[in-house]
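User: Modeling request: complex.
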Amino acid sequence: MKCKKTILRNFNFLSILFLFAITAGNASAMEYPTAEVNTTGLAVTDTEVTVGILHSITGTMAISESGSVEAEKLAIKQINESGGVLGRQIKVIQEDGASDWPTFAEKARKLLVNDKVAAVMGCWTSASRKAVLPVFEKENGMLYYPTFYEGLEQSKNVIYTGQEATQQIIAGLDWIAKEKEAKTYYLIGSDYIWPRTSNKIARKHIENVLGGKVVGEEYYPLGHTNFGSLINKIKLKKPDVIYSIVVGGSNVSWYKQLKAAGITSDKWTLLTISVTEDEMLGIGGENVEGFYSAMKYFQSLDNPNNIEFVKAFKEMWGEDSVIGDVTQAAYLGPWLWKLAVEKAGSFDIDKIAEASNGIEFDKAPEGYVRIHDSNHHLWSKTRIGVARKDGQFDVIYESDLIEPNPFPEGYQ
Amino acid sequence: MFEGYTASEVGSIFAMQGFSGLSLFCVFLLMALGLAIIFGQMGVINMAHGEFLTIGAYTTFFISSLTQKYVPGFMDYYFLLAIIVAFTIAFFVGYLVEFSLIRFLYKRPLDTLLATWGLSLIMQQTFRSSFGAREVSPTLPDWLLGSVQLTDTIEIPINGLLVVGVTAILTGVVFYLVFRSRWGLKVRATTQNRVMSGAAGINTSKVDRYTFALGCGIAGVAGAVFTTIASTGPTSGSLYIVDTFLVVVFGGAASLLGTIASAFSIAQAQSILEFFLSGSMAKVITLLTVIVILMLRPEGLFTIKVRK
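Assistant: Request completed. Predicted assembly structure:
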């Protein structure tokens, strides 16, 4: 008798829960029992799933990475408001990489081993990504990496939501060669892997495909602040296009001194792949006005997704906030992870890695994106923006969707 | 390298190159002056020197935003005010730092190094927390933008001229203070023999405090001026610290003239090498040369002759 009662009570309890799930109209945790969707012991409960955010919020890189953190938190908040992932609310554990690569590796291990997070949104520089990559591969974690980067990498454990080098570089060069009938190019970069690899691709493309000529290729140490000699050399060579991949604090000195030396957009053409709206704040729009930037995303993009995204971003982080290319790419991370989990019907890393291939996302601020069928990079468009005085860009050109090709033949 | 160019084109490139070397010299000198006083006269290794520069840069940004918001008509002139305020604020922060930290460490130079490095980290994070991690850009008055067109092909950047001008004035002032004023006499006396100076009635701890504060104030001015040519962010100052120490050590720590000579030779070497080689190579060669010279002359270019 007593036994029967318990069963009855249990039955009632279950049916109430079931009703609740139906009225909520969401994929409920009940349809996906924790034991089934989480077979590898990740931090997933009936109501919650934990993900990590791993960026530098202190140190030199905080300048760039703070936007990514903001975008990721916005995406996670929106996902939670719309019912979470497989009926579970996302809980965030944030760690600070402190602009120090060994710290990144250590914090990555902490997130994966101690916290058992189901995914990590994080890293910014290639150096930090290279530092955490062995950790993610050994502990079998999932990293969503937002920055445009030099390519030549592919991993089961990473989804690259920014562009790899050929997507950004080739489309931009094609456009400027056609539009400006440019023949001679001067390549300039900060002295580390991304600018060097990118300029290598640019040089091959200019010489072999466009039939142009590279009249100079130079690298300056990170943090270099005096470009007087370089500017004089450029004036001597008079290239049709100045192609710039200068980054960080150097960026500001570089553009301020160009402007002061009379290299402005009325007489010269400059194309860069390292200036987004974020950098414009520090450089000052008046110093970059009229120069071209090749990116997959600009804040001024005029489409309904983006207008809604910019509005939500400003509501959460303040009217004055600006959104650069990487910030938007970081916003894609949590959404692409959610889609992968739902497609796989599981939080297991192996299943997500597999399910990610070919995932489509049409709510992206940059427009429709799709993860490649095999290489974990995104199909995306490249746009050319003209810098405005107020720190925004006018988009004047948009390519077709470009296939990601992290190991480009003939460009290495 | 110059084939296919007319003589006048090559001539004007050399003229502009000369100016670019000159302005690099002034940048080096401006940032090294404050440190030369602190390190040279007091023997304090101040790793936080760059952050005093940042104080000046942020002060300029702050004043520029205030001016733009409340008195837009004053935009043309705010920069001069910013330089003065930058000096004042950096001076007072320096005064406080000396009072609360440095004076306890005068007899422990290596501990000073560690303590000031910690201080620099604390200051960087303070900037980041209060002004945000992103770099900012003070709106410069129109007269500071662009260049002076001397001939058809020779253009001289106005912000470069400003750096040269401020450096000249500041160097003059520092020389007057150190070598001609009563205060300078006390500083030099304290440097040479602290105990004896004390016996002669000089309040040496007061001299120390003002010397340190003055060095910091000069860094503040440098920071304000550098906003016209470089970045303003929490870590901007640290971009200069290595070059600054290089200039001061190479010049001979206790000699202001040495600092000038060293700033000049390093700047010219780097500027000329950059023109003929690439930026990274120029840096490598400059540093190697400095290392070799310092191995041969550990005391630097200029030394004050003292009985040992």
